[in-house]
């Protein structure tokens, strides 16, 4: 099924909180998430024919998890020879104030 760029993937805060809580419990909460800048995402999304992004789970040499962000075409192919996102700024230590998604 081709992507359109308009897929509805919104969830409620309650659902999101449950997802992140299960993840924290399963992993011990060492790394909760990461920050990717608007400009990095915009560079990916502004590529010709890009309809969205895909993330891959990656790992630094020291074992720290990282997300790899790539643009995606309507035919579901990655734009892997295009722009890729910079490494995320990890949470912790950079998490902002405590909320139902990170604590």
Structure description:
This protein is an alpha+beta fold. It has one domain (13-91). 22% of the residues lie in helices and 24% in strands. The protein contains two helices and four strands. Strand 2 and strand 3 (65-73) form a beta hairpin. It is globular. The mean pLDDT is 93.
Secondary structure tally: strands: 4
Average pLDDT number: 93
Indicate the percent of residues in helices. Answer: 10-25%
Q: Beta-strand percentage? A: 15-25%
| Shape by Cα distribution | globular
Q: Which class do the helix and strand fractions yield?
A: alpha+beta
Low-confidence stretches: none
In this structure, how is the largest beta sheet organized? 2 strands, antiparallel
Rg = 15 Å
H/E element string?
A: HEHEEE
Count of individual helical segments: 2
Identify the strand order in the major beta sheet.
1-4
Q: Domain count, please report it.
A: 1
Distance between the termini: 37 Å
Briefly characterize the structure:
The protein has 103 residues and is an alpha+beta fold. The protein has helices spanning 13-27, 38-45; strands spanning 33-35, 50-59, 65-73, 89-91.
What characteristics describe this protein?
22% helix; globular; two-stranded antiparallel sheet; alpha+beta; single chain; 103 residues
């Amino acid at each position: 099924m081709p992507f359109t760029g308009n897929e509805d993937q919104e969830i409620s805060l309650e659902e999101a909180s449950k997802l992140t809580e299960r993840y924290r419990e399963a992993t011990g909460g060492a790394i909760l998430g990461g920050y990717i800048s608007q400009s990095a995402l915009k560079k990916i999304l502004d590529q010709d024919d890009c309809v969205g992004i895909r993330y891959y789970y990656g790992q630094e040499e020291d074992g720290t998890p990282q997300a790899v962000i790539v643009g995606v075409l309507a035919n579901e192919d990655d734009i892997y020879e295009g722009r890729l996102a910079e490494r995320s700024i990890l949470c912790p230590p950079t998490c902002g104030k405590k909320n139902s998604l990170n604590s």
